[in-house]
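Justification of computing resources. Each target in the renewal requires a structure prediction run like the one illustrated here; the chain below, 703 residues long, is used simply to show the kind of job we budget for.
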Amino acid sequence: MHLCKRIQHLSTVKPNLLLCLLLAGALSAACVHQPRIVWTEGAADPKTGKAIHEMEIQNPPAGTDWTLWFSQFRTPVSMGEEAPADIVHLGGTLYRVIPKTEASENKLTLRYEARALVNHCRAPEGFYLQKKGGKPVPVAVKYKWQPSERVQSFTTRHVGTTAYDMVPRLKSLALQDGTTTLPAEDPEARIVEGRPSGWYRITLADAVTVEAADEDGAFYAAVTLDNLRRNAGGKPVPSAIVEDWPDLPYRGLMLDVSRNFTKKPDLLRLIDILAHYKVNYLHLHLGDDEGWRLEIDGLPELTSYGAFRGIPDLQPDGSITEPDALQPTYCGSRDRNDASSPGNGFYSRADFVEILRYAHARHIRVIPEFDSPGHSRAAIKSMEVRARRTGDTAYLLSEPRDTSLYESVQDYTDNAINVALPTTYRFFDKVFESVADLYAEASVPLEAIHIGGDEVPEGAWTGSPACRALMDSTGRSLDELTDYFVSHILDIAEARGVKIAGWQEVALHLRPETFERLKEDLAYVNLWAVSRGRDEYAYKYANEGINVVLSNASNNYFDMAYNDDKEERGHSWAGYIDERRAFSFLPYDCYRSVRWDDQRQIADIAGASAGKTALLPEGVPHIIGVQGQLWAETIRSFDHVTYYIFPKGVGLFERGWNARPVWEATTVSDDPLFMDDFDRFFSIVTDHEYPYYESLGISYHRN
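Resulting structure tokens:
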């Protein structure tokens, strides 16, 4: 790169024109012959769902003593024996090209069979080439895609809107005679007793007055007035009495900052937008396989090592070690010193205190999550590094003699914390203590620490001497090791006066006595999985007295692509999720929440609840909220964060505030009541929210 840039400078030097021209020619040739990749997408075979993709490596080094690294979502790769190189999967999303023959005519062409791409963001990325003994060098890539057409998810009928139309929609609007000029400053709210939390009433007449049930209600009234000013554009509005309140006490967004990181300034911008929609919970997924993002006092390796990705060391047997940072994954980040990479970064203690205070001022509670005992590779590796560097084994989460063989959903073989080790609980006690101190310093309440609890891979702990000894001494089965883990986490939480939260699996495979303890110390569980009958857990738990936050993948996973357009980013394993599907969610009958399938065909929802666990009257109060999830595997920038959420997420934010839509009881997917209500809602989005996003300068999706 530097050589190419110097050509311009050399061409201005005249003493020896011939020398300069020769040098310029040599430099140009050097630039032209830099290695690069041309990756060509293969056409999908409709019968097998596979395709023949092509990876052309141009200008590779001479010989075969080099490696090409890249990142790609896990897919089995098949190549013929005559192929000039092998493509090897090393774990997670890390792959390696191993040449077998020297390049012919300055290129090595690999044709391989793999899954057809759902969309472009599933293609290989993050290429870098490494000669033996040398440093990895980034390699540019050019993509050649199969033809694709722009897809529109749905069609709507536009309905005229007014300044009073906003998201979430107002519960009661009584128009009065005359008009009201909105004041520049909000009037002070008068507190009214006997109203539900979050309730407020605004009277817009000659003067504007505000009544509220509590501080939350006063804040939501201020948000409504702010929306009115924006929608009215400085003009008077019709006089009216507005009365409004949230149906559900928990209206949240989970943001995964572990897989790829969202920096503090961008997170603060997001908090402002969430407050605009009266969202009151931000669940930060801070610890997972691919990164640990919060500084913990006394355990610096969690962030000095576990918050970065870098170059692995290739061993003679073809395996890798990760001496200075976690292996590249997802975004293909390969340089721990690259501050622009979404793979690198963490919140310092001062950062997190600022985030807590900023969110609290906007009536948003922050829930920190550290997924465990599965999904814990970043913490495990960080504590192994700590032990090697300092000799301190007091916080180890793994056992050197553990021979367990397993593969997690995300293709790791070393991401499950060993639940039999006393050091595991010393680690969690340290984390709980540090987190509690941060909330105390910020002077905001710590409502819960989320421990995850999901997707422990089958086979974990089977080869652990410590786990075998524990099972022998306690009579526990392998399944009941989860019970042992949860009971010990409850010991820590109870000792520190902290409640815990978890994904739905945290309440499975527990002994009756542990289950009863969990009910006492559990703030809530997130219901996420909806396949194979797991959608029933939400109402089973609620009926048993466990608080549930509905986080159903089929409606509320915002990292799903909006539609099947090849240029749309996102996953599709839980279906395509657009504004209409998020809006369709029914908290009190979630079985009927998917009204159209992924081919945009009308779904049969009439009998969707038949034979399934019904939500009983005593369970209704335990459905405490809804939450959208934005997992970060396909995120590469803050533009991607906002694009996935807006406006898809506003349908769910609407449902958290207004949980019982007028069409709740309808049994036909395209019932006129639903269609009319969605038309009205989406007209608000296009008339008022699109201009709002434009004013903020954020990326968003247009249907």
